[in-house]
Amino acid sequence: SQTIHQWPATLVQPVGSPLSLECTVEGTSNPNLYWYRQAAGRGLQLLFYSVGIGQISSEVPQNLSASRPQDRQFILSSKKLLLSDSGFYLCAWSGDSLGQPQHFGDGTRLSIL
Amino acid sequence: AQKVTQAQTEISVVEKEDVTLDCVYETRDTTYYLFWYKQPPSGELVFLIRRNSFDEQNEISGRYSWNFQKSTSSFNFTITASQVVDSAVYFCALSEWATSGTYKYIFGTGTRLKVLA
C-alpha cells in the first residue's frame, strides 16, 4: 500500500534562517506531489505541485521554493524565513489522472520566532 | 472561475444530533470530481469520499451520507447521530482540468464541527 512520510513533525526556527522540509512517498510510481500551507484556523493554500522529476509549478509568489530530485521525493525550502512563513505545512500525493484523491502526510508545524 | 464555498465556518451540535455540512461549487467544466476530507485535531487530512460529475447518486457509508445535486452545484455531507470523535474540520474540494494540461484541486475554507458530549 502507499504511504507518505513528512518530517519533521514540528519545527521552531528564527527569522532569517533557512528551511528544508522533506516528503517521501512509498508504494507508487510517478505520483503528482503537492505542498500546501495552512495558517492557524484557515483553509489550505496550494504552494507548489509537481507532475514529475524536476517539474515544479508555483501557485503563489513567496520566498519559498520546491524541488523534486527523485520521483517520490519532494522538498520545500527557503533561504531566509519570514514571520509570515509560520503555519502548518502539508505534503500530499495523488495519482496522475483526473479524479484521483489526494493523500496527505501528517504535516509539519512551523513556528518562526 | 472555479470555486468551492463552505459557508459554515463552525458548527456545534450535541452528541447524537444529525448535522449537515454544506458545500457549493462553481466550475465551467462538465467533467469534474468532488471530494470530502476530514482533518482531526492531529492535523492530517483524511480522504472520505469522491464523486464524479456524472454520478448524482447519493451515497451512504455508516453514519455518513452525501447528497450531490448538480442543479444546485452542491455536495452536502450529513453525519447522522454525531459522536465526539466526529469533531474535526471538514473540507470539500473540487478537481478539474487546468489550462496547463494537468489537473488541480480547489479546496473550500473548511467547516469546523464540534460535537459536545
Largest sheet of chain B: 6 strands, mixed
Poorly predicted regions of chain B: none
Oligomer: heterodimer
Q: Give the number of helices of chain A.
A: 0
The percent range for helix content of chain A is under 10%
Largest sheet of chain A: 7 strands, mixed
Termini of chain B, distance in Å? 41 Å
Supply the helix-strand structural class of chain B.
mainly beta
Helix/strand structural class of chain A: mainly beta
Helix content of chain B: under 10%
Rg of chain A, alpha carbons: 13 Å
Assign an overall shape of chain B.
globular
Q: List SSEs of chain A in N-to-C order.
A: EEEEEEEEEEE
Q: In terms of per-residue confidence, which ranges of chain A show pLDDT below 50 for 5 or more consecutive residues? A: none
Mean pLDDT of chain A: 93
Please report which band the strand proportion of chain B falls in: under 5%, 5-15%, 15-25%, 25-35%, 35-45% or over 45%.
over 45%
- Which radius of gyration of chain B do the C-alpha atoms yield? 14 Å
Mean pLDDT of chain B: 92
- Per DSSP E runs of 2 or more residues, the count of β-strands of chain A stands at 11
- Terminus-to-terminus distance of chain A: 38 Å
Plain-language structure description:
The complex is a heterodimer of chains A (113) and B (117). Chain A has 113 residues and is mainly beta. Chain A is built from no helices and 11 strands. Chain A has strands at 3-7, 10-13, 19-26, 32-38, 44-52, 55-58, 64-70, 73-78, 87-94, 103-104, 108-112. In chain A, strand 5 and strand 6 form a beta hairpin. With 117 residues, chain B is mainly beta. Chain B contains no helices and 12 strands. In chain B, strands 2, 5, 6, 10, 11 and 12 form a 6-stranded mixed β-sheet that branches. Chain B has a 4-stranded antiparallel β-sheet with strand order 3-9-8-7, with no helix packed on it. In chain B, a hairpin with a 2-residue loop joins strand 7 (59-61) and strand 8. The model of chain B has no long low-confidence stretch (mean pLDDT 92). Chains A and B meet through strand 5, strand 9 and strand 10 of A and strand 5, strand 6, strand 10 and strand 11 of B.
